[in-house]
Amino acid sequence: MPLKIAKPTTPGRRGAVFQTSDDITRDKPKKSLLKPYKKRGGRDRSGKISVRHRGGGHKRRLRVIDFKRNKINIPGEVVSVEYDPNRSSRIALVKYPDGDWRYIIGVHGLNVGAKVEAGDNVEIRLGNSLPLKSIPSGTIVHNIEMKVGRGGQMVRSAGGSAQVLAREDKYTLIRMPSGEVRQVLSECFATIGQVSALDHKNVKLGKAGRSRHLGRRPQVRGVVMSPADHPHGGGEGKSPVGMPSPKTPWGKPALGYKTRKNKQSDKMIFSKRRKR
């Protein structure tokens, strides 16, 4: 997926970098695989804002993605590669011999006409889904299950890839994109290949309006607020933070403070991620 650098015809176009649609082969999505998407503006079910800076944006419809890949030993053909407004990668439309249609996450190098299949003993090929016990060490994978039968939950964003390292008893060691090495049950499924849209990380929006189209609202700095609204607020004129280290709006340290709770999945981490 190549990038296009905009000409500086206006201040908003200056420095903007876009994704081209050269890899997209179909404009309209499959109607039977669409669902309505209700916007919540970052609010929880009680109506309170739980995620800030969310709201508005262009109208979207959900594409039903097959994360489980449970069409076992039934080969399907990639009919088209499409745009999905709800994720950073492309999606591929797959048609099966029994007349079923499924969307799967787009794989880098997987083109229209390619065959994909899921099963215990299928070929190690782009887009195929296998249990980790059947995947050789060193293979690049994505869309990895955390629990058997739940569907892929890890490594699904644009350009993402993990690597199968080794096996220990009933577990397989996988190096995640962050550098973390994690144990996953060898019965869990993963898909061969790297997620499409490798250049997504190089996109530059260029203007505030493109952020609003994506449903992102403005972020106001704490130093320009009043002291009633933020710990950094107040002072005469342009003032510094005024404390040894910055804080969140709720008074928690903003740098170097561990906020991760003791999740049940922590015990599956073999080695922690590398520091950037």
Give a verbal description of the structure.
- With 276 residues, this protein is mostly beta strands.
- It has a domain at 24-201 and 265-271: OB fold (Dihydrolipoamide Acetyltransferase, E2P) (Beta Barrel).
- It has one helix spanning 208-213, and strands at 3-5, 17-19, 34-36, 61-63, 76-82, 91-95, 101-105, 115-116, 129-131, 140-142, 144-145, 152-154, 162-168, 171-175, 181-185, 189-192, 269-271.
- The strands form five sheets. It has a seven-stranded antiparallel sheet, with no helix packed on it.
- The longest helix has 6 residues, at 208-213.
- The mean pLDDT is 94.
Overall 3D shape: globular
CATH architecture assignment name of the domain at 24-201 and 265-271:
Beta Barrel
What share of residues is helical? under 10%
Radius of gyration: 22 Å
Please identify the top-level CATH class of the domain at 24-201 and 265-271: Mainly Beta
Biggest beta sheet summary:
7 strands, antiparallel
β-strand amount: 15-25%
Give the overall pLDDT as a whole number.
94
Strand order of the largest sheet: 9-16-10-13-14-15-17
How are helices and strands ordered from N to C? EEEEEEEEEEEEEEEEHE
CATH fold name of the domain at 24-201 and 265-271? OB fold (Dihydrolipoamide Acetyltransferase, E2P)
Structural class: mainly beta
Distance between the termini: 27 Å
- Counted beta strands: 17
What is the number of helices?
Answer: 1
List keywords for this structure.
single chain; 276 residues; mainly beta; OB fold (Dihydrolipoamide Acetyltransferase, E2P); 4-stranded antiparallel beta sheet
